[in-house]
Design goal:
By secondary structure, the chain is of the alpha/beta class. It contains six helices and six strands, in the order H-E-H-H-E-E-H-E-H-E-E-H. Strands 3-2-1-4-5-6 form a six-stranded parallel beta sheet, sandwiched between helices. The chain is globular, with a radius of gyration of 15 Å.
């Protein structure tokens, strides 16, 4: 029962955040890049960090935050990880690292997941990122640009993202 309440509350928060989104900085240049990743479908985060060099960014300017439905029993060294237990039944986030990630003013935030995921959708909706990119299959209301590629084909993603960011004058 609490899971249903949690999901309903998350959907309400998403709607609320969509209505209050500030798009005044949507055309800013790419200086910082953030990724929200569903760990159930993609685990090779090093490839995402390597995009800093491809886009001419410093490695410190690329951040990756992942979501895992259920926390593993084994201890993890990942601090940038979110679980469904980090949200209470009201849909409020109780993870300091995740809150810091949401509050960071990324120039581009990429939702690197293809299926509907209320937890990641709530993070994207609450994010203060200027421009949001998603993969086809995600909620189109959350993103300014949707790219249709295979989630495991990072080379195709890299090429497509660069193409669109160049067209939108986000790259120097």
């Amino acid at each position: 029962m609490f899971e249903k309440l949690k999901h309903r509350s998350l959907r309400k928060k998403i709607e609320h955040n969509l209505n209050k989104r500030d798009v005044s900085e949507i055309n800013s240049q790419l200086k910082t890049l953030g990724f929200l990743v569903d760990e159930a479908t993609f685990q090779d985060f090093e490839q995402l960090y390597d995009l800093s060099e491809y886009f001419g960014l410093q490695p410190k300017d690329v951040k990756v935050f992942s979501f895992l439905e259920v926390k593993r029993k084994l201890p993890s060294l990942r601090h940038n990880q979110l679980h469904n237990k980090d949200f209470n039944w009201k849909g409020e986030l109780h993870n300091q690292n995740a809150q810091e990630f949401i509050d960071k003013q990324f120039d581009v935030l990429v939702g690197y997941y293809t299926k509907k995921n209320n937890f990641l959708d709530a993070m994207v909706a609450a994010s203060h990122a200027n421009f949001k990119v998603g993969l086809a299959g995600a909620d189109p209301r959350l993103f300014d640009l949707l790219i249709e590629i295979d989630i495991n084909d990072i080379e195709a993603f890299k090429t497509e993202l660069k193409k669109y960011l160049t067209v939108l004058n986000k790259l120097k």
